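Pilot study result, target chain (373 residues):
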Amino acid sequence: MFLIAATVASVVADLARSRAAEAERRREEADLAAATARVLLGGATLTDALPEAGRLVGNALGLPSVEIVLDPPDPARQRGVPLDLGGGRAALLVLKSDDDAALSARARERVSPALEALLRAALDRDRLQAEVVETQALRRSDVIKTALLRAVSHDLRTPLTAIITAGHAVRSPGLEDGERDELGLVVVEEAQRLSALVDKLLDLSRLQAGAAEPRRDWCSLEEVVRTAAGDVCPEDNAAFVLSFDEDLPLVQADAAQLERVFVNLLENARRYSGGHPVKVRARVVGGKMSIRVIDRGPGMSATQLERAFEPFYRDDARDGHPGAGLGLAIVRGFVEANGGRVYSESVPGQGTVFAIELPLAARAASTPAGTQA
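Predicted structure:
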């Protein structure tokens, strides 16, 4: 009876230990699956998450190094546990150990089913994210194309119509010299307006294509702003009031791009200034070059300020002036390409301020513009 009782107790204890060990293994497998799911599905792309997932699997198997190879060239000829991901894709769980047979059997039985499911889910997640990004890009492209067609149909057609009309009128034999001169001036002005619009469209297309890489060199901001002011309004020196601190340092940027920035800003400010002079103030603040363009126009609402730098944005209630809504988008693109930032401040009825901050290099901090070689 004692022998029978001991045997039964031993069998029961062995069964309890086996069940406890099985429960512990299942708990470890569940913990491994949860941790691997967080890594593979937690935000990073599948390619970036594979090393960390391999580390987790290695820790669970008691190995210092485990590698998960996505789409191996020939899985049949490589040592490891093959993983079927469906859709013609595969992976390989490479176990770097001397006891490959036992570990491979354990990994094939315990690890590979959950790992295959997680890898399939991660691939589906990456595919869906790529589709979302592509859809957003296509939607944005459609918006830009629609706005571009509007600009082409209106802002390009208007000067073309004026040029064609004036050209036909110039051919009339009954015109006097004064009338012929006026029509010639219309042709020149509308052609210049058309050329400026084409230049803006080209600038915007280069920025959106990432092809506007700045050619950085040391340049004088004062010279850049004065040149831009002369281009915008060469016949009226009182249109802009320029103020620069003494010994203003050089900035390392693309002078041509900065000139385009200030041409667009000054054109915009002069358009809405209501005949008042536009003020431009440049100085060093907090280790950065700060430039503020101030007009005394009607100002902008919070919504207008938020969307002011969007391409093709125009507020019909405020914009009674010709233009395609490209200037400020080009300003932001060129400023950010040169490492700076631009923002706007306004109070309705009291004017608008456009502020630009450009970084100063260590050399420029002690090199005033007047000492440029």
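One observation from the pilot: The chain has nine helices and ten strands. A full batch analysis is planned for the follow-on phase.
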